[in-house]
Amino acid sequence: MILPIIAFGDPVLRKLCTDISPEHPNLDTLISNMWETMYNAYGVGLAAPQIGLPIRIFLVDTSPFAEDESLSPDEQSQLKNFKRTFINAKIIEETGDEWAFNEGCLSIPNIREDVFRQPEIKIQYQDENFESHIETFDGLLARVIQHEYDHIEGVLFTDKISNFKKRLIKGKLVNISKGKINIDYKMRFPDLKKKR
């Protein structure tokens, strides 16, 4: 089932998410719905807060990046075959010199900005069968994981840009939160009246 993606401005996107157990209700259905929602919006990652749930789950499928001809054949192969569910993830270490990449987000449509991140991460997580893993990722793969991981920490990519750039996009962010945007996937916008 395709779920609406939560738009910028909703408080759920700012919550530090909680761990879940294998007994989490309807977990298989939830994960299946998240994949369907992500693919419907042409995303490469989706985190539970983006569908309104403050829990530590995110999905990554980097296959769309595999067609980037500026990447080496090894990188293309790595990205083409990477599809993973991350549950209760914890980044243990981030290493290397920060590099910029133009990022976007399904919750913040039509805005893209260069974000600096470290190129290598070591992450501990459980898969959809609750088997534990500790793995190291680098390059574009690490970046997509870092972006989705930020979501379960209550952080958005726009938090990582300069104050000057934040000022430049402020009007666009306000419009997104008010639903004044054209997109081709289902979104849910914050009820701004509740805040008054």
Topology diagram in text:
Elements: E1 5-6, H1 27-40, E2 45-47, E3 57-61, H2 73-80, E4 83-95, E5 99-105, E6 108-117, E7 120-126, E8 132-138, H3 139-152, H4 163-177, E9 187-188
Parallel strand pairs: 1-9
Antiparallel strand pairs: 2-3, 3-4, 4-7, 5-6, 7-8
Provide structural commentary.
The chain is α+β, with helices and mostly antiparallel strands. The chain has one domain (5-195): Peptide Deformylase. Helix content is 26%, strand content 29%. The protein is built from four helices and nine strands. The chain has helices at 27-40, 73-80, 139-152, 163-177, and strands at 5-6, 45-47, 57-61, 83-95, 99-105, 108-117, 120-126, 132-138, 187-188. A five-stranded antiparallel β-sheet has the order 2-3-4-7-8, sandwiched between helices. A two-stranded parallel ribbon has the order 1-9. A hairpin with a 5-residue loop joins strand 7 (120-126) and strand 8 (132-138). The longest helix has 15 residues, at 163-177. The termini are far apart. The model has no long low-confidence stretch (mean pLDDT 94).
